[in-house]
Amino acid sequence: MISKITGIIFFGLVFGMASGIVSAADDTQARSAIAAAENAQKKAASVDGEWRDTGKIIETAKAAHAEGNYDQAVKLANKAERQGELGYEQAHSQEKLQSPSYLK
To answer: What predicted TM-score, i.e. pTM, was given to this entire model?
Structure first.
């Protein structure tokens, strides 16, 4: 029984460490993620669909990158990229939307 528990714990530790090593972002990945976020932001802005916090999130990602916190930079950049994509989609989906007469 104890050897079974020890094996499970050992497997968990090995798997946990391996997954941490594999998922660690590096400088190149962080730069690429930030560039993708900036491109998505520009695309959304081109149709007046940029969300309020997208630029702030990109700046925070850049600061995390400058501090060497690449995992955080990638995480934030991915969030900003998604906001850019959603802002673009939202702007297009609302192009032909009209306000009701009582709001005019």
So the answer is: 0.72
